[in-house]
From TrEMBL:
UniProt lineage: Bacteria, Bacillati, Actinomycetota, Actinomycetes, Micrococcales
Segments passing through the bilayer: 102-124
Species this protein is from: Cryobacterium suzukii
InterPro entries, per database record: AB_hydrolase_fold, BD-FAE-like_dom, GDXG_lipolytic_enzyme
Domain of life: Bacteria
Listed name of the protein: Alpha/beta hydrolase
Length: 400
């Protein structure tokens, strides 16, 4: 089976205020800009516990280094191959607020991911993985599955004046590899916190031992755990402003939870936003007709569903985010490239479904074959930064 890698590149990040704002109030200006270089990582697969709920899948690949710091309120300098959002990109709705200054945020992460073996990497040293402005708490237990512990890492802003928005990070790895500690999630977690957003990188059960809906259940349990009063108080987070960032397989899980259920996005197993990097959203036999899916993607999805083929796979529709979309779903940011592992038609199908019911969505289509975290070039990071400021940190969209 093909081996896929994502290479490390510097992360750029700025502090931003996450305090809730009333209508018409301008956000606070961000503080200093930080930068961290990520170590190259690869496949790391410790046994991850078990459990149950609802779910999705995929893999990863490579990046060119970029070491440009983005001062607050300035546009992002771009290299010739990093031209702004391509013509295939669009937003569902205009931004509802105008800002004098936009607080910079999202970081670039790098993942070493393999679907069939690779040399074990060294973890990112703690000193390089977080700054002095971040409180890092590792291996916190958010649940138990079949007698095994389910763990997450918490990255918290050291100085906070109000409950902060939060993001749950869901790693990729083709559903059979990856952890909360590797694949760039440690650095992303820290960088989000450095910018004022609490972040939680979670482990979930892996295939083939565990199939759908185990993975979705685990991440949903982490969401429910964070919303408990004890954790809200301990971490200083706003339980009404929690979002999901998923890459590859994690993007399927995040999209599944994002479209799961109806009603308010501020409680229960609902979330405020979803950022999905290279998500497959139709896991049915019909989904195979959307473009030309790679054999790697097909194999990973079947393993995730616990099926040998799509013609006899009872979970395939239930596990497909595309068929669960409704008007109460959170705003989505979908990044995908034209010729990658996941057909671009998958992303476009999700955008059409969300637009049809009036859900805000941004589609960022990149040229070439980059997959998942490889898509995080300067333009994409700037676009995600804007998306999170508008839809998570300072959202004015009704919650239902």
């Amino acid at each position: 089976m093909a081996e896929l890698h994502e290479h490390a590149r510097p992360i750029q990040f700025s502090n931003l205020s996450t305090a809730p704002l009333s209508r018409g109030q301008l956000p606070r200006t961000a503080g200093t800009v930080g930068r961290l270089a990520l170590a190259r990582t690869c496949r790391e697969c410790p046994a991850v516990p078990a459990r149950c709920h609802r779910a999705r899948c995929l893999a990863l690949p490579r990046q060119t280094p970029a070491s440009v710091l983005v001062p607050l309120g300035q546009s992002v300098p771009q290299t010739p191959d990093q031209v702004g959002l391509p013509s295939g990109s669009f937003e569902r709705r205009p931004v509802v607020k105008k800002f004098r200054q936009l607080a910079a945020f999202v970081g670039l992460l790098a993942v070493g991911l393999v679907l069939s073996g690779c040399a074990a990497p060294a973890p990112i040293p703690a000193a390089r993985a977080h700054s002095d402005s971040v409180v890092l708490q590792n291996d916190l237990q958010y649940g138990t599955a079949r007698g095994q512990k389910l763990l997450l890492n918490a990255c918290l802003p050291k100085s906070k004046k109000a409950p902060t928005a939060a993001m749950i990070l869901v790693h990729g790895g083709g559903f059979d590899s990856g952890t909360k500690d590797f694949g760039g999630m440690t650095a992303l977690c820290s960088e989000l916190a450095d910018g004022g957003i609490a972040a939680f990188s979670v482990d979930y059960r892996l295939a083939p031992r565990f199939a759908y809906p185990a993975q979705v259940n685990d991440v949903t349990d982490a969401l429910a755990w964070l919303r408990e009063s004890a954790q809200v108080a301990q971490f200083g987070i706003d339980p009404e402003r929690i979002g999901l960032f998923g890459s590859s397989a994690g993007a399927i899980i995040a999209s599944s939870i994002g479209t799961n259920g109806t009603g308010s996005r501020t409680s229960g197993d609902r979330v405020a936003v979803v950022v999905a990097m290279s998500p497959a959203v139709d896991l049915t036999e019909n989904g195979l007709l959307l473009g030309d899916p790679s054999k790697t993607a097909i194999t990973s999805i079947l393993q995730y569903l616990g099926c040998s083929d799509f013609t006899d796979c009872p979970n395939s529709r239930e596990s497909s985010p595309l068929y669960a979309v409704d008007k109460t779903d959170p705003a989505f940011y979908i990044a995908i490239s034209e010729k990658e592992l996941v057909p671009v038609e998958q992303g476009k199908a999700m955008v059409l479904a969300l637009k049809k019911v009036g859900v805000p969505v941004t589609l960022d289509v990149k040229p070439g074959k980059r997959h998942a975290l490889e898509l995080l070039d300067e333009a994409t990071r700037a676009s995600i930064r804007q998306f999170l400021v508008d839809n998570l940190v300072n959202s004015t969209r009704p919650t239902e």
